[in-house]
Amino acid sequence: MNLKSNNKNLSLFFIVIILFSFANAQKNTAIWVTIDTSKFFEDTESFASAKQKTLDFARQCALQKAIPEEVAITSLLTDFSGQSGDIYEEQTAYSIFALSSISGYITEQKIESAKIAGFENNIFEYRVKLRVKIQPATGERNPAILLELQVKNNFIKDGGKLVVMAKPSIDGYLYLFDFMADNSVLLMLPNRQMKNNFIKANKWLRFPPENTFNCFVGLMPGTEMTTETIFGVFCVNPIADIDKFQQAQPRSNLPGIILSENGFVNFQKWLSNVPLSQRVEKAVKINIVK
Hints:
By secondary structure, this protein is of the alpha+beta class. The chain has helices spanning 2-28, 47-66, 96-103, 263-272, and strands at residues 31-42, 77-84, 87-94, 104-120, 123-136, 147-151, 155-157, 164-168, 172-179, 185-189, 198-199, 205-207, 225-235, 257-259, 279-289. It has one domain (26-289): Sandwich (Immunoglobulin-like). A hairpin with a 2-residue loop joins strand 4 and strand 5 (123-136). Helix 2 runs parallel beside helix 3. The relative contact order is 0.17.
């Protein structure tokens, strides 16, 4: 009688283990998601900007659809504000970068369609159908790794200089990216002029360093304001495969390497190889104005 009971308990134990292993395998398996969505814009918005914003929204929807687990919304909200003359903007932006680093990474992407779906009363609808492959994030954050990231000015005149300030909580390596309005990605640090990206704990790093070189920003053609995202990745160790970013063409007015329209996906693949316990990311918006 006891032997049968023990065997029954042992069988249940193995069933639980199998189900737990299967659940973990499912959680760690990449999945494909298709999103067909649209956003509405005033006719003052450029079509290029509308496409980028709708594409970003579709990516957010895909990540949320693929990873239905509850995520603390407060950890995904970043407030941006800035002032330039009579121009003032304050908004709460939902960061796709924060969402992807917590929930999963887009490692493959296909834009099946991107077009204007309607135009009425000075308002147009931009629709995007996007198919992406998402690799779920694994591991846990190290609360001891922190990064402060700032820009000297959130609003910069067309042709003006970009200055970024960063301060980590421990010694490590800083990687700076510019996610531009045309969906391309610029690796700003390290670059040919500043190959050493090591940064000391609790010390502010100014990029670019004073009296060295300048980072000039510019409007997208035909626009009065262009929004870009400066993204910092801090890691306790140098991140491998950074040389993959060196295959793209340099941009004349900014130091570093610029990636093509697939830059976002290439960035996500690169970031997904670094354990969450060894890194932290921060994003800050800049607005380029006339």
